[in-house]
Amino acid sequence: MKTAILKTNVQQPGSVLRIIITGGTFDKHYDPLRGELGFANTHLPEILRFSRCSLPVTLQKLQLKDSLHMTSSDRKKILSACSTCSETHIIITHGTDTMTETARVIGEAELSKRIVLTGAMIPYSVIGSDAVFNLGCSITAVQLCEPGTYICMNGRLFPYDQVQKNSMIGTFEALDLNPTNM
User: Rounded to an integer, what distance in angstroms lies between the CA atom of residue 64 and that of residue 2?
Assistant: First the structure.
């Protein structure tokens, strides 16, 4: 099987999946001159090529931004990209710090599509990254889930309104919707 070279912002023939790129740790790289993490370009074409993904995918780069710097305007652009694209299966790469906020904006719009947000705690470009694992889980999840908005992290798929990031241990977990007092 020959893997196609994917170009960002080019509709792929027969595309059944759209990946909307918004930035976050997933796409950060280490800048040795500045000694910090920053953005240069997305790693998604490389990841899909190396993983030999055979699903026709369209990549749409909206922005490369740390989610802590996202505004309501950025979230509206992401929602618009989801609602106006022809694909009904969508993955959004996003920073983990405010992923649940963006998921809520999209989820409350009640689009008749399958939308999965994912990200990484460690950049793809750094050894030990969870980016490829989370993306692979998301590609499978978006094909199997019911229409709705979800977050896929750490090998788990969560409805957008039933998940939180646990910053103490660096994972996402289900909200305790029925807490008991002891």
Answer: 29
Q: Which amino acid is at 89?
A: H
Number of Cβ atoms within 10 Å of the Cβ of 69: 12
CA distance 40 to 38: 7
In angstroms, the CA 118 to CA 137 distance is 9
Count other C-beta atoms under 10 Å from residue 155's C-beta.
12
Phi, psi of 56 (to 5 degrees): -65, 120
Per-residue pLDDT reduced to its tens digit, 64-119: 998 888 999 999 999 999 999 999 999 999 999 999 999 999 999 999 999 999 99
Q: Which CATH superfamily is domain 17-166 in?
A: L-asparaginase, N-terminal domain (3.40.50.1170)
User: Could you write out the DSSP letters of every residue in 64-89?
Assistant: EE-GGG--HHHHHHHHHHHHHSS-SE
